Amino acid sequence: MQHIADEMPDTWVRETTAAITALGHTVADAHESAIVITLTPDNRHVLDAADDDTLVIGWTERAGVDWGISSDGAHVPNPRPLNAATPAEIAARVRTLLATGGLSEIPHAMPYATPDDCTCTEQTCGGIIPDPECPDHGHRLNPAMGWHLAGTVLCRKLAADRQS
Question: What residues form DSSP beta bridges with 57?
Fold first, then answer.
């Protein structure tokens, strides 16, 4: 078990907490050791967390800013690097974690039509990852499409609707 170290600068705590709160998330606790974020049912689902778990952002002795799921808001069994260097980057990474369960933002486009000659990669939600060379959805055409992030509640709902 990795303990969160007492190293986060106070200005970072304030700025990060304000940015996370501005994104609509609830910060349950914030101090120099960690920022503890309350998880909604959707957040718990994408992070595979238990009902009473929280998301903890803090500094560990090994890598700087880390994140992990905690059952007590203080101890994180498996901290993972957040790969963020500023409070704004921390907040942006937290938003991605809470939406997708991971740190990668993979956008899915929702085309209004998918012709037979489409070379894009279709996703289970019905969206596509556009191929720049696709004759219908390539970047040179700049088609009008709706977008959502992979793994979000909307993405999972669209995939489930397609399965039924």
Answer: 35, 67
Beta strands 27-30 and 34-38 are antiparallel
SS3 29: strand
Q: Which domain holds residue 127?
A: 107-163
On whether the CB atoms of residues 103 and 149 are closer than 8 A, the answer is no
Structure tokens at 100: 């997708």
> Around Cβ 48, how many Cβ atoms within 10 Å?
9
pTM of the model: 0.67
Place of tokens 């170290």: 5
Q: Report d(CA 41, CA 153) in Å as an integer.
A: 10
Looking at the structure, tell me whether residues 17 and 84 fall in a common domain.
yes
What are the two backbone dihedrals, phi and then psi, of residue 132, each rounded to the nearest 5 degrees? Answer: -55, -25
Q: For 9-68, what is each residue's pLDDT tens digit?
A: 888 899 999 999 998 899 999 988 889 999 998 888 888 899 999 999 987 666 678 899
96 and 116 in a single domain? The answer is no
